[in-house]
# Entry
Amino acid sequence: MIIVIKKGATAEQVEEVSTRLTEEGFKVHLSQGVEKTIVGAVGDRTRIEALDLEALPWVEKVVPILAPYKLVSREFHPTDSIIRIGEHEIGGNKVHMMAGPCAVESRAQILETAHAVREAGATFLRGGAFKPRTSPYSFQGLEEEGLRYLADAREETGLMVVTEVIDARDVSLVAHYSDILQIGARNMQNFILLKEAAKSGKPVLLKRGPSATLEEWMMAAEYIMDGGNYQVMFCERGIRTFESYTRNTLDLTMVPALHSLSHLPVIVDPSHGTGRWQLVHPMAKASLAAGADGLIVEVHPHPEKAVSDGKQSLTPEKFNIMMADLAGLSQALGRPLGGVSSC
Ligand code: PEP
Ligand code: MN
# Structure
């Protein structure tokens, strides 16, 4: 249920609604908009009638949310959620570029890539220190050493860091070094991990499971919000279909669909979404045209030597060319690319 509070109500009046709900066993979440305050109440719907909240003069209406996702829905938060990370806002007017290698391989590799992508206009550095690999014999990541290199790169370039956490036991370690926790496609429904990520207080980039429906994906985000962490971003990274030419099928329909159903920002990953570097640039453009709030792209100084995902990684030169093109497109769309302010 959502309880819409009338404009001009005092903090005490909102508090009274929250207290009544809590006493009746509801879990309460507040959404403070510029225009309206909305109180989200999760619990036994039949008990809300007894509270007769609409009798309070400062309550506009009590509305049930019929969809299974509540806090993630636009009903709970009618305006777009903006996630503030350092000097950046994700979900605001600017579009953000997150770029870097699939995996952190060495200090030199991550620093070289960080400088190159920052030069080209990226605002976030990506790179996996914990890698979820299909084969146990593949490179599993540099773990904490890799996290340290990412933090060094942030220090040198001013880029914020987004990196994956694959195990609930590592959430506080990864949160210590990173600005955004990435939850990978294979872990979208790892509910223990989602709950731990909620507790970290760090923004979460929630990738879509390779065979997850929109509703399952939104329910996964609901876990994080229900855990008290409202800083969640969706990341469309392609789904498994019968098509085998591409690694995955990039489902860009999700961008406007999510924007209509949810207030949370949507990022697109055209690297994993296609699996082929040649398709990254055109699909990046398509993502912006579909309304993406940002992109996450794999860039490697020497893709042919990359320990993972070389086939879908852009060289810094190709990334630069793509960024120049996207800068023009994003201007035309009225959503300029974000940038790191120079120190
Ligand atoms: C990655 O970002 O390198 C990654 C493993 O992505 P996904 O979880 O989308 O496969
Ligand atoms: Mn990858």
In short: The pocket of manganese (II) ion (ligand 2) is lined by residues 102, 272, 298, 308-309 (CB under 6 Å). The first strand starts at residue 2 and ends at 5. DSSP finds eleven helices and 14 strands in the chain. The two ends are 47 Å apart (CA to CA).
